[in-house]
């Protein structure tokens, strides 16, 4: 076992950061298998320099930072800069929440949520392939079953290690999934169309037709258009990926059932709002759309 020293990950706008609120969101499903919340720390396996490393992430309020300790890294050379970037991106540690909170104060729906969940960052998905395939997995099914499918997919095709008697996983690599037949996913209860879409995206990424570098070089509209050109990616999925992975603040998954239910609840409506109603309620969000959506999703976790 090879360990690094503690790595500090600075938190921008630390006065508006709550690791505790982030842990609540990270604990939302008992079927989560890519990270584990244990007390006040998170354990997560990631890949550094081509090798899986197990991290323990904790809060250090005095340093206005999080700390990452490598619990297990084999004989790999640990790239601390990569670990810092990975965690910062995943937990959105570089954002300044003050503009969003200033905006939320003037919004009757968002103000109580911003007060109630102060310090919650927009927890993202740190891998593009994971973000894309999760957006497809969750289409037209409830969240609980979506997590069941995700767990089966990760267990079957992801990197697996047992450390101190506990199972840890890294999300499946596109090259692994690209070689599969749809029947492999259909046996897990993925629909035929979802199996085709996921394998197709894996092949597109493996062939260089859809890359992280491409998307980072595009603005929001260009990236959205590019994503929608692939089978299985519609407006909702594209905005979800751009919100949760690429961090476009104006990304708004208008068709999201959770967003509709949260608006119904917060606005005390008698029926779930129509898509036209949702467009009207959200049209002024602009660059705050992603955070507004995320805080509304959080309100559903009671």
TrEMBL record:
Gene Ontology cellular component annotations, sorted alphabetically: cytoplasm; protein-DNA complex
Statement: the UniProt record of this protein carries the keyword Ligase: no
Keyword annotations of the record: DNA damage, DNA repair, Hydrolase
Gene3D superfamilies in UniProt: DNA-3-methyladenine glycosylase AlkA, N-terminal domain, Helix-hairpin-Helix base-excision DNA repair enzymes (C-terminal), Hypothetical protein, domain 2
Chain ranges of the HhH-GPD domain: 137-301
EC category: hydrolase
GO BP term, example: base-excision repair, AP site formation
GO MF annotations in UniProt: alkylated DNA binding; DNA-3-methyladenine glycosylase activity; DNA-7-methylguanine glycosylase activity; oxidized purine nucleobase lesion DNA N-glycosylase activity
Superkingdom, taxonomy of origin: Bacteria
Reactions this protein catalyses: Hydrolysis of alkylated DNA, releasing 3-methyladenine, 3-methylguanine, 7-methylguanine and 7-methyladenine
Keyword flag DNA repair: yes
Family, per entry: Belongs to the alkylbase DNA glycosidase AlkA family.
The protein's name: DNA-3-methyladenine glycosylase II
């Amino acid at each position: 076992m090879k360990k690094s020293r503690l790595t500090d990950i600075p938190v921008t706008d630390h006065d508006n950061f709550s690791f505790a609120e982030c842990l609540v969101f990270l604990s939302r499903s008992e079927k989560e298998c890519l990270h584990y919340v244990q007390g006040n720390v998170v354990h997560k396996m990631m890949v550094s320099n081509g090798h899986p490393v197990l991290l323990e992430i904790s809060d250090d309020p005095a340093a206005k930072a999080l700390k990452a300790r490598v619990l297990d890294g084999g004989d790999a050379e640990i790239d601390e800069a990569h670990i810092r970037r990975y965690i910062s991106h995943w937990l959105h540690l570089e954002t300044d929440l003050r503009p969003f909170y200033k905006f939320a104060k003037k919004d009757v729906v968002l103000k109580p949520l911003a007060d109630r969940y102060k310090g919650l960052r927009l927890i993202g998905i740190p891998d593009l392939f994971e973000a894309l395939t999760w957006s497809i997995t969750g289409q037209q099914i409830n969240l609980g079953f979506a997590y069941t499918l995700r767990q089966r997919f990760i267990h079957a095709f992801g990197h697996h290690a047992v450390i101190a008697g506990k199972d840890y996983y890294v999300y499946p690599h596109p090259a692994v999934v690209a070689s599969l037949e749809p029947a492999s996913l259909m046996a897990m209860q993925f629909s035929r169309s979802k199996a085709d879409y996921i394998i197709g995206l894996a092949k597109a990424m493996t062939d260089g037709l859809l890359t992280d570098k491409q998307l980072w070089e595009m603005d929001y509209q260009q990236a959205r258009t590019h994503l929608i050109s692939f089978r299985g990616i519609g407006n909702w999925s594209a905005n979800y990926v751009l919100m949760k992975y690429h961090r476009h603040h104006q990304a708004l998954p208008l068709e999201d059932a959770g967003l509709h239910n949260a608006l119904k609840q917060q606005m005390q409506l008698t029926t779930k709002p129509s898509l036209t109603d949702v467009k009207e309620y959200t049209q002024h969000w602009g660059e705050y759309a992603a955070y507004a959506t995320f805080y509304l999703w959080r309100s559903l976790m009671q």
